[in-house]
Write a structure and sequence with these properties.
Its EC number is 1.-.-.-. Keywords: Oxidoreductase. By secondary structure, the protein is of the alpha/beta class. It has a single domain, classed as TIM Barrel (Alpha-Beta Barrel), CATH 3.20.20.30. It is about 45% helix and about 15% strand. The longest helix is centred in the C-terminal third of the chain and has 15 residues. It starts with 9 loop residues before the first strand and ends with a helix. The relative contact order is 0.15.
Length: about 300
């Protein structure tokens, strides 16, 4: 099993594109002090993934930093491998290169071409492997996780990568991912949370969060495979979908939901705090959640 030196089984997922990187570094240091094991983040509209990883790794001592995910349409395969090797050489066991095929509307909206995502990912991984061993000689290659939702991409994450980083899934889907991958690959599941005892506030945040995803075919198909139906796939998702995909409640109830992913076979769970907008600071909620999560 590839090396990832998580200091605890729960980390954080936070895309901080609306924040200055210096402020993100300060918050990463506090996450480390609180006992969170990682900080993962997305790549769609803002900061460049590998540059951000270097900044966060350099600002912390133990925190694992993961791209969740780096868009394979945003950089050449060998550039991704070379950048990942350099980060792994500088910070052994602390960098995770999460990779994903993104989504047709996002890729084509940036003048890219989106076809045959499984074949595209397989080819990308093969080209990564072709990078000369002379690049960062002696350093471990970056640990690779794939944004894997469907069974074929999950299978590829086991045969050509080190595991899966599934997003917007139920604990039952974590169990399915573990079953497909077997015991020797990483499963790092994302879990969105709304820390509030006001159900209406929690649902509002959940629907706002799901608004974009509910219009993307990859996620719609994933939710249908997970047992939801077309009535759940309205823009923003049905209340039932929202309450299954977003843990809403107090710290103890959210911690219990996170444990369901761990019990289902996740090695590590990254929690994404939902607020009222992308500029909201997740740290107050993460401070409150930390004791309940037994970090």
């Amino acid at each position: 099993m590839a090396q990832i030196d998580f200091q605890s089984r729960v980390g954080v997922w936070w895309t901080s594109d609306a924040w200055a990187i210096q402020d993100v570094q300060v918050r990463a240091k506090e996450l480390e002090r609180l006992g969170y094991g990682s900080l993962f983040y997305g790549e769609a509209f803002g900061k460049e993934s590998l540059t951000q990883a270097g900044a966060l790794l350099g600002a912390t001592e133990r925190l694992v930093v993961g791209t969740g995910i780096a868009n394979i349409h945003a950089r050449d395969a060998k550039a991704a491998e070379a950048g990942g090797r350099t980060l792994s050489a500088l910070h052994p066991g602390r960098f995770v290169l999460g990779l994903g095929v993104s989504h047709a509307p996002l890729v084509e909206g940036n003048a890219g071409t989106y076809t045959k995502p499984l074949a595209t990912m397989r080819d990308y991984l093969q080209r990564m492997d072709e990078l000369s061993a002379k690049v960062e000689p002696g350093a471990p290659r970056p640990t690779r996780l794939l944004a894997a939702l469907g069974p074929k991409m999950i299978e590829l994450s086991g045969t050509a990568a080190d595991g899966a980083h599934p997003y917007l899934i139920t604990p039952e889907q974590t169990a399915t991912t573990r079953e497909l991958l077997g015991p020797d690959k990483w499963v790092v599941s994302e879990q969105a949370v709304a820390l509030t005892t006001d159900r209406e506030v929690g649902l509002r945040r959940a629907h706002q969060h799901l608004h974009m995803y509910s219009q993307l075919p990859n996620y719609r198909n994933s939710w249908l495979r997970q047992g939801f139906d077309e009535s759940d796939l309205v823009v923003g998702g049905s209340d039932e979908l929202a309450e299954h995909l977003v843990a809403i409640g107090d710290a103890e109830s959210i911690a219990a939901h996170v444990r369901r992913h761990l019990d289902a076979g996740a090695n590590h769970v990254v929690i994404q705090v939902l607020g009222d907008g992308p500029a909201d600071d997740p740290l107050p909620a993460l401070r409150e959640l930390a004791p309940a999560l037994d970090l």
